[in-house]
Amino acid sequence: MTNILLIKTFLGFVVMNILISNDDGVFAPGLLAAKQAVEDIANVTVVAPRENNSSVGRRLTLFKHLKISPYELEDESMAYSVSGSPADCVVVGTNYVMDEKPDLVICGINQGVNISCDITSSGTVCAALEAVSLDIPAIAVSLFVDPKTAFKQDENGEWYVDYDFTLAKKVLHDLVLKIKSEGFPEGVNLFNLNVPSNYDCEDVKITHLAHKMLDKKVIDNTDKEKEEIFNYPLDENQNSDDLIMIVSDLVKQYPEGSDGYALIVEKRPSLTPLNANMTYHELNDW
């Protein structure tokens, strides 16, 4: 595919059509934030999963029925919900909902972090990969929520998460403006953008993928350290003796120059340019 967006011109004005999806679901505040970030510079269509589809990777629903329904976002604008995966939503949005193929697909703003080589499990990033497979450049964008500052109490003492998308919306808006005027860099067809909610610097750092984001382990009912996590309410027919659970902790140390280092250590936005073709190089001498 070409690395330059083919954007239509009407009466001297550049018209850009953007498809927005996510993996958190059509009801997620980050989806509306993404729409608000770019609706002043593009025609926006929103197609998102009916339910949360985090960590489903690039799962596709083939030869099975999907339900598509109109959905009104909080700003009273129209969206569509699909009873499938994020990748399904990109396919449905591109090939069914929109009259023309979009110039750009934005996936997010994800309420969480998507960094390192672990991004291949992300519904957000893999929806963007699905767009690239349809010859559409894409942006995956996520908000890294700092638990130290994001969890707050309301006037009744109830805890809630304060998703402050202000900086994420600004960075996404500026990135799309640059793409609109210059296209994607040579060899890049996907940007992975991560923005911290609690930041020390607003300047975007161009980064590479860290090796991994999560340390994973498997626990059972003998693990006292994770007992509270493991002993969630069970179905009455389940016995904890034959259950296991995969749990994870966020990696704390990252190499300098990586997405994790910029986001978590430097507390600044990380932008990782990617190419969906994961071929390393020809092994002529191997």
CATH class of the largest domain: Alpha Beta
Q: On the 0-100 scale, what is the average pLDDT? A: 90
Topology pattern, helix = H, strand = E? EEEHEEEHEHEHEEHEEEHEHE
- Please work out how many helical segments DSSP would assign: 7
Query: Percentage of helical residues?
Result: 10-25%
User: Which homologous superfamily in CATH is the superfamily of the largest domain?
Assistant: Survival protein SurE-like phosphatase/nucleotidase
Instruction: Please give the radius of gyration in angstroms.
Output: 20 Å
Choose one word for the global shape: globular
Q: Runs with pLDDT <50, length 5+?
A: none
Question: Can you tell me the CATH topology of the largest domain?
Answer: Stationary-phase Survival Protein Sure Homolog, Chain: A
Structural class: alpha/beta
Strand order of the largest sheet: 5-6-4-3-7-8-11-15-12
> What's the number of structural domains?
2
